[in-house]
Amino acid sequence: MVTLLVATTTDPASINPASALLSFAPNSWTQGRPLQGFKNFAMGNVRLLQLTGSIVGEDNLDHRWESHSGEHVTEIIFMSKHAAVSGKPSLTVHPIGVPHMLPSEKPLAGGKPGFASPPCPRIAPWLRLLKEVAVKHELVPEFEITLEATHHGPEVDAPAMFVEIGSSDGYWSRLDAAQAIATVFWQGLGLDGGTEVGKWTEAHHGENVLLGLGGGHYVPRHMDVIENTGSWVGHLLSGYSLPMDEPSAETKKNANEELFLHVTGTWKDAIRESFRKTQAAFPGGKVMAHLDAKSLKSWQRSAILSFLACENIPVGKPHDFAAANEVTASQEIHSR
Questions:
Q1: Which helix (H) or strand (E) is 310 found in, with range?
Q2: Which pLDDT score is estimated for 330?
Q3: Which label site among 91, 145, 195, 282 has the fewest CB atoms less than 10 Å from its CB?
Q4: pLDDT under 50 in the chain at which residues?
């Protein structure tokens, strides 16, 4: 069983961290047999695959690696650039998928419509580690360290996450940012000889996992909960991933707890898929939905809450995500 890391030579925000990671212990990495022409390197139970084109269109890399090597991929982590109109410097982490899209739609940045990959359990712990490393590398306050909502491809069945450098060309090529990202991988995977960060095991069964619903692309209210409670995080569906068609005023007034039955759109499918995949990524975990209530209109909140109740999906307030997770978060911080 292996962790598969994926980078591409066409993206400096991807290949620079990958190259830095290889340079930390050049004699400990061994080059393997190419996968469909792609170079790859191995160290312990970690495999680093170097693509030569776009990452988001390379579906099923987990299964392709297993067919190639006979090794089962337990998680897949991508190194990539983050693009934003603002162009602000940032280091981001996020789950992947386009669960809100219809089969007839074509995703602009890869993925399979209606599908979300299981979220890698390392997302929240690595966000905390990334903040710590960024401070040590003197990237803060210049760079913002943040989560992003679930979006884009590729399609993979293994628990997945992206770690990115943003948000414009000048920052994608920053070697100090690449060193920081490489350090997160080096420490987070225990390649430095230390304890891995964010590995979900039976010892974590019963701990709280946040399923974020609503908010903007950078999910600030969900981030606040994760940072303040030490909660794990699953999928994060921003408002654009919850397409909801507003019902008539009369329907909103009279539907009561059955309002969700009258609100069309793909939002229910997106929530079901994201909840199911989050459960799969955190076996034994207590997955609870957290609503960014202020970002939703009252009829949207009512519809979502009644739907969650019908689906038996628990809903948590910010303080509900603490408790069982506080010791784990503290141990992670002090184990480095």
A1: helix 298-310
A2: 45
A3: 195
A4: 327-331, 333-334
Task: Tell which CATH architecture fits domain 202-324.
Answer: 3-Layer(aba) Sandwich (3.40)
* Tokens at 293, concatenated: 């209530």
Measure the CA–CA gap between 34 and 139, rounded to whole angstroms.
35
CA distances to 91, 153, 229, 289, 333 from 226, in Å:
17, 24, 5, 13, 14
Is there a common fold for 2-188 and 202-324?
Answer: no
Q: How do the domains of the chain map onto residue ranges?
A: 2-188, 202-324
Distance between CA atoms of residues 180 and 130, nearest Å: 8
pLDDT value for 327 = 44
Nearest by Cα to 173 from 8, 5, 16: 16
pLDDT digit string, tens, across residues 162-190: 999 998 999 999 999 999 999 999 999 99
Distances (CA, A) of 246 to 27, 114, 265, 273, 307: 60, 21, 9, 22, 15
The kind and range of the H/E element at 304 are helix 298-310
CA distances from 56 to 16, 67, 81, 106, 155 (A): 18, 20, 11, 13, 8
Residue whose entry in the numeric block shows the structure tokens 């430095």 = 192
How many Cα atoms occupy the beta-carbon half-sphere of 170 within 13 Å? 5
**In this structure, are residues 46 and 5 in contact, taking their beta carbons and an 8 Å threshold?**
yes
pTM of the model: 0.94
Beta strand 160-167 with 46-51: parallel, antiparallel or unpaired? Answer: unpaired
Residue 55 has which token pair? 């990452």
The DSSP output letter for 104 is: T
